[in-house]
């Protein structure tokens, strides 16, 4: 009898999936692989571990995750959200196995602590991030955003399990930069939505405390000057938060993720504003025509 249903969204994840599924075996979780038509060994690996495999056309993370909640035959009380390039750490496995069964019915969700790994090295000089990754089935879903999606809980309390999961992508730098170039468009949409409400989203409903604080910090970031904010963020992380102590891998992480990527996002925000001004309908049309994303 499975205790937890784990939803994993995939596209060509043969390099990561086995590691992820092995960690799930240690918490007696049933894996539901929702795939966006991979052409590698993703399906073969998933089925070799007894995972439920289903495919659906990709729109964005939130849409795909919520589709999984509605279409997978989930029959457990708890759902775990995990990406293919993530895995549960030993203390996370221990916390789930020992503490989760003891939670009272009024607890609807639990957070786990994120551990960042880049090029094989743990990036330690980052703020401690707790994320809702476990929730009772029927009480939560992903908020409808293009980036920075959090799990929203309909009712009940949220507790910290104090276990850890790792984000540890094994692909090379070329893959990483290409991926983040595609992310930058979605991030630009998210920032424009926070500034102009082009999608009409609410940005703080039913979020846990840390997610709400993170969203408030992001709103302050939105109101800061373009390009200066990305440079300032890099200096804050690399100098004031002692990121330079994480070695060459740490420099690459903070430079690429903290400055290069966010400057690229600002370039796309600048581009869209230059051609559209503050006209939200023009923004939608421009994004659709130039980036192939319909909003």
Automatic annotation (TrEMBL):
One example GO MF annotation: transferase activity
Pfam families linked to this entry: Glycos_transf_2
This protein's record includes keyword Transferase: yes
Highest taxon in the source lineage: Bacteria
UniProt keyword annotation of Transferase present: yes
Family of the protein in this entry: Belongs to the glycosyltransferase 2 family. WaaE/KdtX subfamily.
Domain Glycosyltransferase 2-like: 5-93
Name the record gives this protein: Glycosyl transferase
PANTHER family found in the cross-reference section: GLYCOSYLTRANSFERASE, POLY-BETA-1,6-N-ACETYL-D-GLUCOSAMINE SYNTHASE
InterPro entries referenced in this protein's UniProt entry, alphabetically: Glyco_trans_2-like, Nucleotide-diphossugar_trans
């Amino acid at each position: 009898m499975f205790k937890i249903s784990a939803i994993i969204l995939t596209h060509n994840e043969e390099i990561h999936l086995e590691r992820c599924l092995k960690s799930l075996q240690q918490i007696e979780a049933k894996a539901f692989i929702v795939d966006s038509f991979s052409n590698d060994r993703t399906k073969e690996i998933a089925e070799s571990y007894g995972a439920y495999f289903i495919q659906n056309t990709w729109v964005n993370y939130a849409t795909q995750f919520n589709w999984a909640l509605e279409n997978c035959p989930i029959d457990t009380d708890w759902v775990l959200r995990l990406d293919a390039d993530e895995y549960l750490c030993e203390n996370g496995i221990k916390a789930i196995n020992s503490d989760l069964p003891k939670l009272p019915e009024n607890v609807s969700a639990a957070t786990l602590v994120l551990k960042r790994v880049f090029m094989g090295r743990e990036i330690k000089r980052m703020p401690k991030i707790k994320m809702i990754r476990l929730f009772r089935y029927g009480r939560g879903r992903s908020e409808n955003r293009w980036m920075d999606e959090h799990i929203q809980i309909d009712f009940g309390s949220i507790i910290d399990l104090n276990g850890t999961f790792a984000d540890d992508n094994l692909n090379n730098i070329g893959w990483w930069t290409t991926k983040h170039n595609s992310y930058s468009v979605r991030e630009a949409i998210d920032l424009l939505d926070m500034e102009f409400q082009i999608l009409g989203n609410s940005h703080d409903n039913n979020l846990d405390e840390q997610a709400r604080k993170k969203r408030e910090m992001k709103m302050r970031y939105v109101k800061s000057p373009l390009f200066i904010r990305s440079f300032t963020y890099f200096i804050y992380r690399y100098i004031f938060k002692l990121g330079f102590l994480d070695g060459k891998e740490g420099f690459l992480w903070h430079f690429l993720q903290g400055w290069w990527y966010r400057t690229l996002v600002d370039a796309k925000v600048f581009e869209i504003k230059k051609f559209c001004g503050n006209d939200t309908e023009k923004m939608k049309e421009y994004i659709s025509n130039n980036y192939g994303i319909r909003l």
